[in-house]
Amino acid sequence: MSESERPKTPEPSGVDLARVALRAAKEAARARGDAAQQKKQARRGGLRSGARADGRDPMALGSAINRLISERGWETPAAVGGVMGRWPQIVGEDVAKHCVPERYDEDERVLVVRCDSTAWATNLRLLAPTLVARLNQDLGHGAVRLLKVMGPGGGPRRYGPLRAPGSTGPGDTYG
């Protein structure tokens, strides 16, 4: 396969490069500090635990999770996950009873929401620009570009000449 035929991977943007460089600089500084501290402790008579905090102490769970999120670059997906947990406060109790966020596509910046009836799906499509603005205000500008509203998921389609008596078929709404 020649070089022109290979699919090109997207180059990291300036913000991503800056984030990686800052993270690498912090880790290098931390490593230099840890090495100097260990050298000083070795001269004093070896490594020993003391009353003050050092690099060997356990880390608080919240700090560990925040560090993991920032190291992996998961800030936006974590923020969107928080929005999914606060969905009733963002859209209101009535809408939340009938419409549930399903997934978030980070590359496309699309939030997919499923409604339990076509009437609620239509209503949410009309509210979509307002909801996208509210979500971006909460998450940061541009975190959600589009709100994709899905109607109710129906059961399996039953094709053929034979039907059960009284069957209405797939119908319009399932809720």
Report what the structure shows.
- By secondary structure, this protein is mainly α.
- Helices cover 50% and strands 10% of the residues.
- The chain has six helices and three strands.
- The protein has helices at 14-44, 61-72, 75-85, 87-91, 93-98, 118-139; strands at 99-105, 110-115, 146-150.
- The protein has a three-stranded mixed beta sheet.
- The radius of gyration is 26 Å and the shape is elongated.
Write the layout of secondary structure elements.
Elements: H1 14-44, H2 61-72, H3 75-85, H4 87-91, H5 93-98, E1 99-105, E2 110-115, H6 118-139, E3 146-150
Overall shape: it is elongated
Quaternary structure of the protein: single chain
Range of helix content? 40-55%
β-sheet strand percentage:
5-15%
Question: Mean of the pLDDT scores?
Answer: 75
Q: What is the succession of H and E elements?
A: HHHHHEEHE
Strand count, sense and barrel status of the largest sheet are: 3 strands, mixed
Through-space gap between termini: 52 Å
Structural class: mainly alpha
* Number of H- or I-type helical stretches: 6
Radius of gyration, CA atoms, in whole angstroms = 26 Å
Strand order in space, largest sheet: 1-2-3
| Low-pLDDT residue intervals, each spanning 5 or more residues | none
